């Protein structure tokens, strides 16, 4: 079965509309029929969907029963082109946008910047690829196709660090049937930066004019708060990117693209790009709100009508809203590749080098804030699993679990020793006791305010304060009182990890103060509410894949059972599968550093 036939027989995902990409609204009478729900003055004709178009079900059947195909049914011409290249015997390389961390031996793990040979792209969500001698499935959304496909794999470093090659090479490389220069490679990268930026502007314009503008006309369907949740500050991003692309085009040398000096543009806009932080932090909320709305048919039809009227490609709204998240993480990779093909004597070299570092910092800042916000849900879930909790919630003062582990705590007056589990958050150390029979159950015992403490390394031998012999010990001493806590680890390396963790905790607190990072009260309350619901109802089951995957098993091992998690950033670890980490304390390792 060919891939084209397979996609026609068994669609990859259930969707009420055709997977084709209409080239115009006058096709098969759609212009006349769909123009009525979304009209210029903002009022929706209440009878439009029933009188002119028939019922909701009729519209549903019209979209489904249309046999007219435009473009590639698998989700775009790019995927079709990849499969044609592979079937012709060509080697196709992709570059990782983000880390893909997996414990599944059928999946291919990699780091951001790794180069993957794409061996099968017939599945829209998961591709089959190879790195050195390892093969496996990986999420297609985690990679981008390499710009210079003709460059030999052996000449391309697996990791691009700082945009510089692992080996010193001449400015000329041989590939294909002829020879090309470093300038030609630089031309390819410059052209990609300019073309993808123009495409991105078109995406942003379509969202703002095709969706937001129409949604604002429907006050009966959307509140301003809902629109803010769904679209975030994407209009601010659109305005910023319009200015940025104009600056890029001014620096673009059409006659000799390799002479273009674009590095200064990225340096000029590095501060403005920080507006992506707000958007990325809000993106999970947008996905949840969209998921809630699209359970109602009228919203599904409305969003599809918006897409068709704007003549947008066949991507769902949540796919369009993911684009800014992907874009800000793509800049460092593009600049690293540009620097690779920029001679040190080039007038743009220093600016590109500085721009690469600047955009890495921007992406890292955004990623870190995103990760911290995601962590508050984990912390809330962890607290909800602790028995006999007393006092304020952890999230009142903390937003990061720095380290956790088992220690022996020695207390006055009789130097009584107790085995306890300790969890070091920013600002506080929480002490818990394991259940005697069920070791996966923890009971809350106490907490220590780390803002008042100083850490003292204790040498092995007799301690004067407690009058006992200790090994692998350290103390927490209160600066303003006579309060002293003595702790012992089982091994010297465990003690060193704890001492390092206390340093990291103070560093994290200072960094948060400098950057102004904070969690809003609304976010804290929502996290605790979500944790409370999950504690009572249990975790949701994993989403099962479509039956189409059966065809793929004939060629490769089983496809991964979960859909790729796209709401991640370059430096973040994707959430692969639901984990009952609060039921087993050993699964709290994602918190650790």
UniProtKB/TrEMBL annotation:
Q: What is this protein called?
A: ARHG4 factor
Does the keyword Transmembrane belong to this entry? no
Its GO CC terms are: cytoplasm
Domain DH residues, every copy: 185-369
Q: Which Gene3D superfamilies match?
A: Dbl homology (DH) domain, Pleckstrin-homology domain (PH domain)/Phosphotyrosine-binding domain (PTB), SH3 Domains
> Where in this protein does the record put region Disordered?
156-178
- SH3 domain: which residues? 89-148
Q: Which gene encodes it?
A: Arhgef4
Could you tell me where this protein is found in the cell? Cytoplasm
InterPro entries the record matches:
DBL_dom_sf, DH_dom, GDS_CDC24_CS, PH-like_dom_sf, PH_domain, SH3-like_dom_sf, SH3_domain, SOS1_NGEF_PH
């Amino acid at each position: 079965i060919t891939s084209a036939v397979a996609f026609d027989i068994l669609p990859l995902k259930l969707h009420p509309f055709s997977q084709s990409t209409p080239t115009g609204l006058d096709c098969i009478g759609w212009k006349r029929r769909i123009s009525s729900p979304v009209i210029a003055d903002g009022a929706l004709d209440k009878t439009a969907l029933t009188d002119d178009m028939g019922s909701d079900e009729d519209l549903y059947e019209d979209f489904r029963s249309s046999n007219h195909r435009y473009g590639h049914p698998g989700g775009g011409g790019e995927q079709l082109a990849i499969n044609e290249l592979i079937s012709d015997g060509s080697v196709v390389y992709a570059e990782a946008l983000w880390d893909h961390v997996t414990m599944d031996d059928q999946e291919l793990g990699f780091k951001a910047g790794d180069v993957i040979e794409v061996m099968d792209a017939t599945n829209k969500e998961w591709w089959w690829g190879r790195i050195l001698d390892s093969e496996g499935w990986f999420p297609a959304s985690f990679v981008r196709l390499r710009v210079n496909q003709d460059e030999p794999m052996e000449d391309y470093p697996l990791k691009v660090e700082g945009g510089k090659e692992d080996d010193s090479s001449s400015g000329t490389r041989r590939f294909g049937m002829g020879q090309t220069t470093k300038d030609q490679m630089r031309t390819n990268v410059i052209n990609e930066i300019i073309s993808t930026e123009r495409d991105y502007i078109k995406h942003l314009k379509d969202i703002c004019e095709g969706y937001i503008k129409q949604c604002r006309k429907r006050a009966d369907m959307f509140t301003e708060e809902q629109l803010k949740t769904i679209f975030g500050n994407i209009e601010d991003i659109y305005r910023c990117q319009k200015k940025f692309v104009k600056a890029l085009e001014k620096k673009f040398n059409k006659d000799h693209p390799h002479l273009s000096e674009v590095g200064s543009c990225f340096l000029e806009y590095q501060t403005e790009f920080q507006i992506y932080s707000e958007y990325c932090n809000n993106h999970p909320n947008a996905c949840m709100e969209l998921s809630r709305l699209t359970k109602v048919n009228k919203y599904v039809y409305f969003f599809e009508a918006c897409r068709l009227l704007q003549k947008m490609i066949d991507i769902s709204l949540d796919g369009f809203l993911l684009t800014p998240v992907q874009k800000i993480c793509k800049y460092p990779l593009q600049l690293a590749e540009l620097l690779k093909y920029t001679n040190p004597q080039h007038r743009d070299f220093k600016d590109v080098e500085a721009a690469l570092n600047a955009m890495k910092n921007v992406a890292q800042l955004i990623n870190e804030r995103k990760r911290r916000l995601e962590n508050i849900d984990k912390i809330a879930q962890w607290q909800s699993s602790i028995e006999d909790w007393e006092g304020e919630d952890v999230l009142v003062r903390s937003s990061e679990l720095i380290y956790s582990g088992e220690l022996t705590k020695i207390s006055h007056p009789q130097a009584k020793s107790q085995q306890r589990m300790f969890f070091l958050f920013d600002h506080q150390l929480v002490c818990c006791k394991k259940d005697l029979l069920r070791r996966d159950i923890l009971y809350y015992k106490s907490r220590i305010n780390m803002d008042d403490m100083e850490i003292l390394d204790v040498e092995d031998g007799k301690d004067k304060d407690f009058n006992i012999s200790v090994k692998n010990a350290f103390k927490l001493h209160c600066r303003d009182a006579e309060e002293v806590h003595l702790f012992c680890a089982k091994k010297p390396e465990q003690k060193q990890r704890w001492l390092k963790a206390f340093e990291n905790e103070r560093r994290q607190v200072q960094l948060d103060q400098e950057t102004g990072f904070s969690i809003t009260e609304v976010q804290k309350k929502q996290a605790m509410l979500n944790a409370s619901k999950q504690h009572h109802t249990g975790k949701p089951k994993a989403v099962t894949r479509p039956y189409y995957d059966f065809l793929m098993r004939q060629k490769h091992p089983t496809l991964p059972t979960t859909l790729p998690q796209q709401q991640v950033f370059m430096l973040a670890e994707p959430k692969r599968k639901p984990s009952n980490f609060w039921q087993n304390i050993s699964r709290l390792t994602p918190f650790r550093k």
